[in-house]
Amino acid sequence: SQTIHQWPATLVQPVGSPLSLECTVEGTSNPNLYWYRQAAGRGLQLLFYSVGIGQISSEVPQNLSASRPQDRQFILSSKKLLLSDSGFYLCAWSFARDTQYFGPGTRLTVL
Amino acid sequence: DAKTTQPTSMDCAEGRAANLPCNHSTISGNEYVYWYRQIHSQGPQYIIHGLKNNETNEMASLIITEDRKSSTLILPHATLRDTAVYYCIVRRLPTGNQFYFGTGTSLTVIP
């Protein structure tokens, strides 16, 4: 069966510091991968998606970037965090554009 | 993707069936109805999806009306661990990358 991992689970970072969140998927090959952000009390916003190694599509302009160095690894990064980057970050995977399965999430607080 | 309307909150007694309604009156013929739930501080969990026939799995049943303008998610024997926010989503496959999560229904299972 497939498993999706995210780390860290929680993170507190000062404004202006860099960010690296990692997501890995086990038990599948060539998945579609997604990064979402959920602000407090709001719905999920798609940030990036990837259909293959090195292929990244950005849904909204922002302070963040994504990379996919390996088939089952998806990384969310920032060079300098803003207060507005605080939120709950979720990684998800799917077969093609089928049902998406979400990871446990990373709660980021920028102070 | 079509919009959905769900009640903001519901209560259900432990051991009873929880029936969560969703209206999607503008749904088109090639859009599926998906249900996810999100337990506090966790990633969304896929529950079930369907096109026009009723569906059942180990977690729940999905009843879709004949005109497809509404559906009901049924948790047959609710437990305290079913307390979560339940999201009804309609999505066209295979186009589109994002699942649009609205505000959902906050279900509280009462002992």
Written account of the structure:
The complex is a heterodimer of chains A (111) and B (111). Chain A is mainly β and 111 residues long. In chain A, strands 2, 4, 5, 6, 9, 10 and 11 form a seven-stranded mixed beta sheet that branches. In chain A, strands 1-3-8-7 form a four-stranded antiparallel beta sheet, with no helix packed on it. In chain A, strand 5 and strand 6 form a beta hairpin. The radius of gyration of chain A is 13 Å and the shape is globular. In chain A, 34% of the residues are buried. By secondary structure, chain B is mainly β. Helices cover 0% and strands 47% of the residues of chain B. Chain B has no helices and nine strands. In chain B, strands 1-9-8-3-4 form a five-stranded mixed beta sheet, with no helix packed on it. Chain B has a four-stranded antiparallel beta sheet with strand order 2-7-6-5, with no helix packed on it. The model of chain B has no long low-confidence stretch (mean pLDDT 91). The interface between A and B is medium-sized, with 23 and 20 residues.
